Fold:
Amino acid sequence: QVQLLESGGGLVQAGESLRISCAASGRTASDNAMAWFRQAPGNEREFVAAISRSGGTAFYADSVKGRFTISRDNAKNTVYLQMNSLTREDTAVYYCAARVTVRSSSYYIKESEYGYWGQGTQVTVSS
Structure:
């Protein structure tokens, strides 16, 4: 079992930055590829960014590429999402996801590939 707890969401102005975190706990917390997804009101949940177990490989949705950075600190079992140049279109509930994997360099971008999810943290960007 892996438990995920997101934090750091809030209300920011357009153009500002925000960093959200996801703390993982459980027997296999350090054996997980991780990702961030988001869901805006009235929309389906969508992929944002993914990172491998080792942290050496990452992948981004086109909509956030160049603005968002996913990283992880395996010593702290925590994954981060640094969000810069935020726009109103980034307003959503952001979910952390984890997948146990033996592949240290692989990342995953489909919801169905993740078995563990956090409760989400709200990010609201005002203009």
Notes: DSSP finds no helices and eleven strands in the chain. The first strand starts at residue 2 and ends at 7. The mean pLDDT is 96.
